[in-house]
Amino acid sequence: MPLKKRMPSLCSMSPNKYWEQSLSHPFIIPVFLPHAGCPHHCVFCNQNVITGAAVSPASDSEIISSIQSWLPYRTPDRSPVQIAFFGGNFLGIETQKITRLLNIARKFVQDGYVDSIRFSTRPDTIAPSRLDLLADYPVSTIEIGVQSMNDTVLDICRRGHTEQDTVLAVDTARRRGYAVGIQMMTGLPGDNTDGSIASGLRIAALQPDFVRIYPTVVLDHSPLARWYRAGQYTPPSLSDSVSLVKQLYLIFHAAHIPVIRMGLQASTEFADVVLAGPFHPAFGHLVMAEVYRDRAFDILKNNVLRGDNVWIGVHPRRISVMQGLKKENIRFLMERLHLTHVVVEGFSHIADHQIAWRQISEEQPNSICDIF
Fold first, then answer.
1. Across-strand partners of 75?
2. Per the domain annotation, does 290 fall within a domain?
3. Residues spanned by the domain of 240
4. Same domain assignment for residues 217 and 147
5. Do 315 and 371 meet the contact criterion of CB atoms below 8 Å apart?
6. Among residues 93, 109, 85, 112, which one has the least CA distance to residue 31?
7. Collapsed DSSP state (helix, strand, coil) of residue 330
């Protein structure tokens, strides 16, 4: 399949202006750098498993070939196109290697196939001298692996940085004009529900451009695996984790901060190495299903009677979320509200994040309500 250029390129825009036009669904081409630039071995980490990549660094030709293999899969609704360096601590890599990687990515931008570059890094490596390395490159977005805003939890997890490092990193990157994303984790050793909520509130106060939320899972060959086997760490259940991430999602939504991922990306490598913890291939779907379930319950509980037949309308792409996995939400509503029947249908005139309801015998919805 021939490669199709992305023209005109958005790289001439300032990073903030670029981000304003690209909050929807960017097409991200990942280049994984497992453990690259990481000065610490965090207790939860087995980066080779998370990225599905080998320890040895890829050659220039391998990286170029990998990027080229992704380009034909971009669909018209996925814009902009970004090359993303994930899996390591990008600004902690040796300077020569950073420029080597950026030069590879920049060539795709110059040729019109890609719009910009993004990478993930630790908060304690975002310093003016390191950001100076990026000045001549079309980098638009920096994702910061924060994990927690609790110094005790960070210390237990051997992160090697503090909450204040994160605050300074966000401010430093933003002053340079970059879009800033934050990655946080729940269920870490030494943390609990209240602690994660507190971290979420502190992160929201920093007003990042987006957030990723990853529940902690126990990966084999990690320090956390040894703690788990020794009975020193017990991961939260899937249901508790979904409920917690739902609360965090609502915190960020209220602060107008997009949550672009909830849960680790499913891959075949996880099958044999996840020892325990709330891993689910559709974790984000479970979270959003609870959000919709809770809202539907709140709407219906004061408006329906025992034995009623109820119709619920949502946008077509939200049908599965409203129904819940294996139609669990429908069963929940029927059992809790003592309904005889619940039907969920999709209608394009109902806006995304809205819900309508009526008695099945009626022709028009009683009301259309916002989910949030």
1. none
2. no
3. 15-281
4. yes
5. no
6. 85
7. helix
Alpha helices in the chain (DSSP H): 15-20, 47-51, 60-70, 95-110, 128-131, 151-156, 163-175, 193-205, 223-229, 238-254, 283-300, 319-323, 328-337
Tell me: do 269 and 343 sit in the same domain. Answer: no
Domain shared by 307 and 231, yes or no: no
Q: How many CA atoms lie within 13 A of 131 on its CB side?
A: 19
User: Do residues 219 and 340 share a domain?
Assistant: no
Phi and psi at residue 302, to the nearest 5°: -105, 10
Residues 43-90: tens digit of each pLDDT: 998 755 544 444 456 899 999 999 999 999 988 777 799 999 998 899
Tokens standing for residue 177: 């004009």
Q: What is the pLDDT of residues 239-270, one digit of tens each?
A: 999 999 999 999 999 999 999 999 988 765 56
Q: The tokens 């020193």 sit on which residue? A: 232
Whether residue 69 is contained in a domain is answered as yes
- Global pTM? 0.88
pLDDT of residue 271: 61
User: How many CB atoms are located within 10 Å of the residue 214 CB?
Assistant: 22
